[in-house]
Automatic annotation (TrEMBL):
Gene3D superfamilies: Glucose Permease (Domain IIA). InterPro entries: Cell_wall_metabolism_enzyme, Dup_hybrid_motif, M23ase_b-sheet_dom. Residues 289-299 have a biased composition (Pro residues). PANTHER family: MUREIN HYDROLASE ACTIVATOR ENVC (PTHR21666:SF270), PEPTIDASE-RELATED (PTHR21666). Residues 171-241 form the M23ase beta-sheet core domain. It comes from Streptomyces phaeochromogenes. This is M23 family metallopeptidase. Residues 270-299 are annotated as: Disordered. It comes from the Bacteria.
Length: 299
C-alpha cells in the first residue's frame, strides 16, 4: 500500500473518530473524555488532508509533455476548473485531480440553454434542466476498462447559494469521509496503456455500456453524463492519472486532439474522430497504448 493511500485512509479514520467523540459527549452520560479532546483527531486529519492536497504529481509527471487523447464528448461545450487556467485545476492534487477538467454542454439553441446560477430561487433543479445531462460519453483512446459503476442516483442540482452552502458544509464533508467513490459518484476508469489511466466522473445512473475487463475503441460510447457524486450540476469531469486507485493516483497532463485544453469559460466544439468505433466492446482485441505525447494548446 502506498504512502498516499495510507494517508487517505488515516485521514478518514481520524474524521470518523472526531464525529464519534462528539456524539459520545452529547449522548453518553458521564462520558469521561473532555469535549476539547475531540478536536485532536480533527486537527490531525486536517493536517494530513492539507499535506495530500499540496503533494503534487512529482517531477516525472509534472515535467512530461501532455498525453494526447480524443475529447470524451461531442458537440459544443465550455470548460470550468481547467488546468489551462490554473494547476491544480480543482485546488487540490488529491484523487489524481491535478490536471482534471470540468466541462458543461453549451448548445447554440437558446431554448436549450444552461440554467444560470441562482442566488436564492429556485434552490434546486432537476438534472434534465441542464443540457449536459444524458449526453453520451466516448472512449478517448483504445483502452481496457478497469472500473465502471453506475448505481448511484443523479441528485438535484446545487447551483444556488443555499444549495451550494449545503454542498460545501454538509454533503461535501460526508462524501469526503465516505471515500473517493462518493466524491466522483458513478465513474469509469480506462487503462490507456503506458501507465496512463483516464477517469470520467459523475456518470449518469444506469447508463454504462461497458464493464470491467472490456476493451474499447477510441470514439466508442461508454456511458452518459449525469449528476452523481460531489457535483453542483450535470457535467463531465475528466482526468488522466498514473494509476486506477483514486486515493493513490497522481495527475497526468493531457491535451485533446484538435481541441487542446480549453481554459475556463472557453467554448469549444468536439467533432467525431475519424474511424471512431461505435460497436460493442471487444474481449479479444489487444489493448492500445497511449498515443505519443503532444503539446498542450493554450487558450
Amino acid at each position: 500500500m502506498s504512502i498516499r493511500k495510507t494517508a487517505m485512509i488515516l485521514f478518514r479514520i481520524l474524521q470518523l473518530a472526531f464525529l464519534a467523540m462528539v456524539l459520545a459527549e452529547l449522548l453518553v452520560p458521564g462520558y469521561p473524555i473532555a469535549w476539547a479532546w475531540a478536536f485532536l483527531p480533527l486537527l490531525l486529519s486536517l493536517v494530513i488532508g492539507l499535506t495530500v492536497s499540496r503533494s503534487g504529481p512529482g517531477q516525472e509527471a509534472a515535467g512530461r509533455p501532455p498525453v494526447e487523447v480524443d475529447p470524451p464528448v461531442r458537440g459544443r461545450w465550455s470548460a470550468m476548473n481547467s488546468p489551462a487556467t490554473k494547476v491544480p485545476s480543482h485546488g487540490t492534487h488529491g484523487y489524481g485531480q491535478t490536471y482534471a477538467i470540468d466541462i458543461v454542454a453549451e448548445p447554440a439553441a437558446s431554448e436549450n440553454s444552461r440554467p444560470a446560477f441562482a442566488k436564492l430561487w429556485p434552490v434546486v433543479r432537476r438534472s434534465r434542466a441542464f443540457p449536459a445531462y444524458d449526453e453520451p460519453l466516448f472512449a478517448v483512446a483504445d483502452a481496457t476498462v478497469v472500473h465502471a459503476s453506475d448505481w448511484m442516483r443523479d441528485h438535484l442540482s446545487r447551483n444556488s447559494l443555499p444549495a451550494l452552502a449545503y454542498l460545501m458544509l454538509i454533503e461535501g464533508a460526508v462524501r469526503e469521509i465516505s471515500g473517493a467513490r462518493w466524491i466522483v459518484g458513478n465513474h469509469v476508469v480506462l487503462d490507456l496503456g503506458d501507465g496512463v489511466y483516464a477517469m470520467y466522473a459523475h456518470v449518469r445512473r444506469g447508463s454504462l455500456k461497458i464493464k470491467p475487463g472490456d476493451r474499447v475503441r477510441a470514439g466508442q460510447q461508454i456511458a452518459r453524463c449525469g449528476n452523481s457524486g460531489n457535483s453542483t450540476e450535470p457535467h463531465v469531469h475528466f482526468q488522466l492519472m498514473d494509476g486506477p486507485d483514486l486515493d493513490a493516483a497522481r495527475g497526468i497532463p493531457f491535451t485533446w486532439s484538435e481541441v487542446g485544453v480549453p481554459a475556463n469559460k472557453e467554448t469549444f466544439t468536439a467533432a467525431p474522430q475519424r474511424g471512431a468505433g461505435n460497436g460493442a466492446p471487444s474481449h479479444d482485441r489487444p489493448a492500445h497504448e497511449a498515443p505519443p505525447p503532444g503539446g498542450a494548446h493554450g487558450a
